[in-house]
Amino acid sequence: MGRHEALSDMMQRSGPAPAPGEAGGIVLSDVWLDRGQTPLFRGLSLTLTERRIGLVGANGSGKSSLLRLLNGLITPARGDITVADLDARKHRRDLPGRVGFVFQNVEHQILFPTVREEIAFGLAEQGLARAEARAQADALLAAHGCAGWGERAVEELSEGQKQLVCILAAIAPAPPILAMDEPLASLDLATRLALLARLARLPQQILMASHDLDLLADFDRILWLEAGIVVADGTPADVLPRYRAHEMARAAAAAEAALP
């Protein structure tokens, strides 16, 4: 049995997916996607309405690609995606206003030299006057305990502070959905826990890819991806122990294979 066949068999045993047709959220229908010359998604269908959804899987499993599809950073070869009532193909330019995106590497996201400018950019893109965008940026900073940060140079911030700025920049335009690709991976434990507490208080629907399973333990739903296939889909209590056991077995096999 090949890898895809084995994964498909696991997927069939993982339990039913959510019923299609639920209002709001995200719906993917028969989505096909290639990553370069390599096939990834082959008929992926999902309905995502839960408030906090975690994505787990090995590097290259499709987590980042799934998140980027939702924001319009990439488009599928075929299939339909609806995000917050928008057809992702027809309204690709409007998707960033519906899906705030937070990259793993802050250097891939930050564009401006000061904190205020970085956060105000998305607001100005929505049509706000420059002064109003800057005022709203300052108000958002104050609401998250960062009053007085506006004039600070981004390059002088710690990694945790930069990550917080990226998150605030993503939520400033008030998108209904927040897609986060390993947003806390480079942070120390205390900073990660503080940012996770902030995220828990946000009203947005959150989709987060993470290798830190403890951070996803109280999410509403977990998707386990392998080679573009949803291996398991359910609660953290159901999916995370299975995924952890699978990865431990894979690591043990790799270590044994490396022995002389």
UniProtKB/TrEMBL annotation:
Region annotated Disordered sits at: 1-20
Concerning Pfam families, the annotation shows: ABC_tran (PF00005)
Lineage top rank: taxon: Bacteria
Q: Which UniProt keywords apply?
A: ATP-binding, Nucleotide-binding, Transport
Molecular function (GO) terms for this protein are:
ATP binding; ATP hydrolysis activity; ATPase-coupled transmembrane transporter activity
Against SMART domains, the record matches this protein to: AAA (SM00382)
- Location of the ABC transporter domain: 26-252
Q: GO CC annotation: what is one?
A: ATP-binding cassette (ABC) transporter complex
Q: Which family does it belong to?
A: Belongs to the ABC transporter superfamily.
* PANTHER family referenced in this protein's UniProt entry, alphabetically: ENERGY-COUPLING FACTOR TRANSPORTER ATP-BINDING PROTEIN ECFA1, HEAVY METAL TRANSPORTER
Q: What is this protein called?
A: Cobalt ABC transporter
Q: Which organism is it from?
A: Azorhizobium oxalatiphilum
